[in-house]
Amino acid sequence: MSRAVVGMIAGMALGFAGYFGGFGAFLLVAALGAVGFVVGRFLEGDLEIGEFFRTREDRRR
To answer: What are the UniProt keywords, alphabetically (predicted)?
Structure first.
């Protein structure tokens, strides 16, 4: 599935959540989608846990 289709599905899910559940449901769906995205990237090997916990000095190198 292309990224455009995935983005469209995510946008539709957010739209339905916002319409039927209100703003709180919209935020919940958006937050869970972001968590799912990060977990998916981690499982694919695109991210490493150490990237989230580096200090500023380590980023400059």
So the answer is: Membrane, Transmembrane, Transmembrane helix
Angle between the N-to-C axes of helices 3-21 and 23-44, in degrees from 0 to 180, rounded to the nearest 10 = 150
Is-above-0.70 flag for pTM? no
Residue 15: what are its φ and ψ, rounded to 5°?
Answer: -65, -45
Contacts of 21 (CB under 8 A, 6+ apart): 28
- Nearest-angstrom CA–CA distance, 31 and 37: 10
Indicate the pLDDT class of residue 59, thresholds 50, 70 and 90: low
